[in-house]
């Protein structure tokens, strides 16, 4: 019996290097941030010139400042132990809810969505940080109730109510795109937590009814869907954005027109630095650039999958799944819209699109995943066994002098 048990444990033990997850996340983040900086500078320069009367750097500098804040959050967050993130979860979650309430009381709308508040001279979108708060909260609560998630009551209280309340606050501001991402995030958390499949059927039915109700309450939402479904649409009117996005992708070819050489950024493609930045990537960097972005998000997906399967802490497993569904799921929606596979939804491409709140929140989420990866079983020992870059450099210089 003992020998059989030992063989089963050996068979189920994680294989491969435990530091792969960490380096996958670090490499993917670097690729996406570097591509994002280059394309945001290019696509936002024209808007900056028009808004400032000649300075092409204005919007890029705002993005760069947000990048510095986001990288600070990533580095600090990646160094924190898992127990610290568990303790911080209530603060992040309830703080996010508080900010969403402030949005409804004193916020303002952009593009028909009331999801912005102003803090001093800075505009902030709290719904981006709410995604992080919800992922952490679901990870903490569902990990504690994992063996009890066999009844509708246990699923709904308290995690289901909390998720519904946060998503509801986002929907009050008419931001259906962000709400869809948060639903995906919640579903991934429940799936990894082990909720029986029959409850997902009930959830899908309820979500379908909710979507129908929301569509009937907004004429612009129905118009977007009808525009997407239309076989004969005005390319200079309702279909302008998607048509121009497709033209940008097509004109890039395999190698692209070159950095900064986009034609569509000159006011032809709306939201070229945000929702449709993937089209500018295709135009300037060609098929090579678009595939590089896809590979980077695939790397994040692989890393999240490794965390779910290799980590022993259920909090890490559930939170990782939720964060992965947010980052990769939102990227899928954004890219599918640009490729005309989905109607326009208005969600940015994580780590790439312009927008300080989105960039900071996404980098903070990657910081959480990196913290989990640093403590994957076997990873602390592997990191400790590898000499640091400075030590290796000193050793090389010392050997050179002796020689």
Automatic annotation (TrEMBL):
Q: Name one GO cellular component term.
A: cell division site
Q: Which reaction does it catalyse?
A: [GlcNAc-(1->4)-Mur2Ac(oyl-L-Ala-gamma-D-Glu-L-Lys-D-Ala-D-Ala)](n)-di-trans,octa-cis-undecaprenyl diphosphate + beta-D-GlcNAc-(1->4)-Mur2Ac(oyl-L-Ala-gamma-D-Glu-L-Lys-D-Ala-D-Ala)-di-trans,octa-cis-undecaprenyl diphosphate = [GlcNAc-(1->4)-Mur2Ac(oyl-L-Ala-gamma-D-Glu-L-Lys-D-Ala-D-Ala)](n+1)-di-trans,octa-cis-undecaprenyl diphosphate + di-trans,octa-cis-undecaprenyl diphosphate + H(+)
Q: Where are the transmembrane segments?
A: 20-40, 60-79, 91-109, 129-145, 152-170, 200-219, 285-308, 315-339, 351-373
Provide the E.C. number(s) assigned to this enzyme. Answer: 2.4.99.28
Do you know which InterPro entries this protein is assigned to?
Answer: FtsW/RodA
List this protein's GO terms for biological process.
cell division; peptidoglycan biosynthetic process; regulation of cell shape
Give the UniProt keywords, A-Z. Cell shape, Glycosyltransferase, Membrane, Peptidoglycan synthesis, Transferase, Transmembrane, Transmembrane helix
How the protein sits in the membrane? Answer: Multi-pass membrane protein
Localization in the cell: Membrane
For this UniProt entry, the molecular function terms from Gene Ontology, in alphabetical order, are:
lipid-linked peptidoglycan transporter activity; peptidoglycan glycosyltransferase activity
Assigned protein family: Belongs to the SEDS family. FtsW subfamily.
PANTHER family per UniProt: CELL CYCLE PROTEIN, PEPTIDOGLYCAN GLYCOSYLTRANSFERASE FTSW-RELATED
> What does this protein's UniProt record list under function?
Peptidoglycan polymerase that is essential for cell division.
Tell me the protein's name: Probable peptidoglycan glycosyltransferase FtsW
Please name the source species: Demequina capsici
């Amino acid at each position: 019996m003992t020998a059989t048990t030992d063989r089963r444990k050996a068979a189920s033990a994680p294989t491969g290097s435990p530091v792969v997850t960490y380096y996958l996340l670090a490499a993917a983040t670097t690729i996406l941030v570097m591509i994002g900086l280059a394309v945001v500078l290019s696509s936002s320069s024209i808007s900056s010139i028009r808004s400032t009367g000649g300075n092409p750097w204005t919007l890029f500098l705002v993005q760069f400042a947000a990048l510095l804040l986001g990288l600070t959050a990533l580095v600090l967050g990646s160094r924190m132990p898992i127990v610290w993130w568990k303790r911080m979860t209530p603060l992040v979650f309830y703080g996010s809810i508080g900010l969403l309430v402030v949005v409804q009381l004193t916020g303002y709308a952009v593009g028909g969505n009331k999801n912005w508040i102003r803090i001093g001279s800075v505009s902030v979108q709290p719904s981006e940080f709410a995604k992080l708060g919800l992922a952490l909260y679901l990870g903490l609560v569902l990990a504690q109730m994992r063996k009890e998630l066999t009844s509708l009551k246990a699923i709904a209280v308290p995690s289901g109510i909390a998720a519904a309340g946060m998503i509801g606050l986002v929907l009050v501001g008419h931001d259906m795109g962000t709400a869809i991402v948060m639903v995906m995030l919640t579903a991934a958390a429940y799936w990894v937590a082990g909720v029986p499949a029959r409850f997902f059927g009930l959830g899908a039915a309820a979500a379908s009814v909710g979507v129908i109700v929301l569509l009937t309450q907004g004429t612009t939402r129905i118009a977007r869907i009808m525009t997407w479904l239309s076989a004969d649409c005005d390319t200079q009117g309702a279909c302008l954005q998607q048509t121009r996005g497709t033209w940008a992708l097509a004109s890039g070819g395999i190698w692209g027109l070159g950095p900064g050489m986009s034609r569509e950024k000159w006011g032809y493609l709306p939201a070229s630095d945000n929702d449709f930045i993937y089209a500018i990537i295709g135009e300037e960097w060609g098929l090579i650039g678009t595939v590089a972005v896809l590979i980077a998000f695939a790397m994040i997906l692989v890393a999240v999958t490794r965390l779910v399967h290799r980590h022993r802490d259920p909090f890490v497993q559930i939170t990782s799944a939720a964060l992965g569904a947010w980052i990769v799921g939102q990227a899928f929606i954004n890219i599918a819209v640009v490729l005309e596979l989905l109607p326009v939804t208005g969600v940015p491409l994580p780590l790439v699109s312009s927008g300080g709140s989105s960039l900071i929140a996404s980098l903070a989420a990657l910081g959480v995943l990196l913290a989990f990866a640093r403590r994957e079983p076997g990873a602390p020992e592997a990191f400790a066994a590898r000499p640091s870059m400075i030590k290796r450099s000193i050793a090389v210089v010392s050997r050179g002098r002796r020689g």
